[in-house]
Amino acid sequence: MTVFPKDFLWGGATAANQCEGAYNKGGKGLSVQDVLPGGIFGPITDGPTKDNLKLDAIDFYHRYEEDIKLLAEMGFKVFRMSIAWTRIFPTGEEELPNEEGLAFYDRVFDTCRKYKIEPLVTLSHYESPLYLSKAYDGWRSRKLIDLFAKYAKTVFRRYKDSVKYWVTFNEINVTSHIPLLGGGVLTPRDQLTKQDMYQAAHHQLVASGLVTKIGKDINPEFKIGCMVASAPRYPMTCHPDDVTYAMEEQQELTLFVHVHAKGEYPYYTKRLFEQEDITLEITEEDKQHLKHTVDFISFSYYNSKTVAKDPSKYELAQGNLYRGLRNPYLEYSEWNYPIDPQGLRYILNFYYERYELPMFVSENGMGAIDHPIEENGTLTVDDNYRIDFHKSHLIEVGKAIQDGVDVFGYTSWGCIDLISAASAQMEKRYGFVYVDRDKDGNGTMNRYPKKSFYWYKDVISTNGQSLFDTKD
To answer: Which domain holds residue 462?
Structure first.
């Protein structure tokens, strides 16, 4: 029996700030990532520093042809990537775009087309222009709505015949929790109120609706989606206090999907905002922009989150941005992330039951310390742990499809090793391709397929059937 649809989009995902490098090449301006050498929790430096590995990253800027060829060798149908806003408008306020930046992405998309790989492009992936952060405190200002719309209109027009699938903001809900990462807000988090953070997120939601309309006006064939960081909330116990607390936490997450899918804030926003003493400034024009809903829902999934009304009695666990309590029924990664394949099936059903929009798994993976070995005169990595992780999660995607969920694609996170967004580390690797660069930035930057490279190639070539092969 065929589980995955015949046109299923198999592939992988990257972000410009974590793979491109060349921070000062081709007319590019500085983004907030260029002054965050330690990752999402700072410190913020005065300018680029040698210890910021993202400045060179894995040099996709110069090696994109080699990298896309490797993706094609695996059989990728789709490549999720982002455009660096500061390659197109270096400060964000220029009247005219930077032609060198536009031409770079012309070449990237031409290479994708050469190998029959469909680009899925994120407009904003944690790389707000640093100038706008300094001038306006990032997305706390309404000014950024029109500036983002100008940028989006520029790339929509330029690539209207090269790109079909678009995502407006990466993990848009993160702005309400980590405003520097999600919204380019330089004011320290401990000096911000919930009002400040949700107002910044609201400005992004308005901008998302506005550019969705702009994109559809430019090319009605565009498929434009939202993207959120997802971690289903499990109650630690069946005590009603824990169950209700998990429900409220899940609603806070789902709010961002609801606005994109329904064009308005959900009913429970009133209670949520009253609890947090939030009164958003929402104009009539805002409401009109929000009504431009998305074609699909995409999300990242790394782990579930277990919560309790009183967490003091339990041990803490880590996780990708959303960190909860240690679930005794799960295994854990080297970074103490819970490994929960069934949570992926759960969240796919959760969203589809509510919104009945096509679903796309845009990030899924496990960070691990890889130990390269030499085989037949070349480097490789015997990464069965990565294979086991992806296999177990993809089987759950297959089960969700059997449940009736319309899932049309899956992109593994960091398909080629890149710099971690959370910690700015190189040793926290996700890829099917090993990049020869160490934690201090030393190495040849050469690429080497890992064991998982050939495993994923087989998964794609069989359209997922090999996942269910019981033979060793």
So the answer is: 9-468
The C-alpha angle with vertex 129 and arms to 124 and 130, in degrees rounded to 5, equals 140
Q: What total number of domains does the chain contain?
A: 1
Tens digits of per-residue pLDDT, 363-390?
999 999 999 999 999 999 999 999 999 9
Residue 264 domain flag: yes
Q: Is residue 3 part of a domain?
A: no
Q: Where does the pLDDT of residue 42 fall: very low under 50, low under 70, confident under 90, or very high at 90 and above?
A: confident
In a domain, 89, yes or no: yes
Residue 363 catalytic? yes
pLDDT given for residue 471 in this prediction:
59
Q: What is the mean pLDDT of residues 310-329?
A: 88
CATH of the domain at 444: 3.20.20.80
Residue from 363, 374, 375, 427 carrying the catalytic annotation: 363
| Candidate from 174-178, 214-218, 421-425, 452-456 with smallest mean pLDDT | 421-425
Distance CA 289, CA 368 (A): 41
Under 8 Å between Cβ of 344 and 302: no
Is position 4 within any domain? no
